[in-house]
Specification:
Elements: H1 2-20, H2 30-49, H3 51-64
Helix pairs in contact: 2-3
Length: 65
């Protein structure tokens, strides 16, 4: 579980750095960032935890090999 917390901390640090180095912090697109993260986690859950997602990626792997 500890490596997952390190990854989560890294994600938070990258977003914090983006906000910190933003020219206009009040206009930082929090909604866009949060939606992007939510979509990324949703796609990961679909790919890793469903048979359909696994099938799509096994076919993609077969096409590459």
């Amino acid at each position: 579980m500890f490596p997952k917390l390190i990854s989560l901390l890294g994600l938070v640090v990258f977003i914090a750095l983006a906000w910190l180095f933003s020219n206009n912090r009040r206009a930082f697109p929090w909604r866009t960032v949060l939606w992007g993260l939510a979509l990324q986690f949703a796609f990961a859950a679909f790919i890793l935890h469903t048979s359909v997602g696994e099938g799509i990626f096994s076919k993609a792997q077969g096409a590459v090999n």
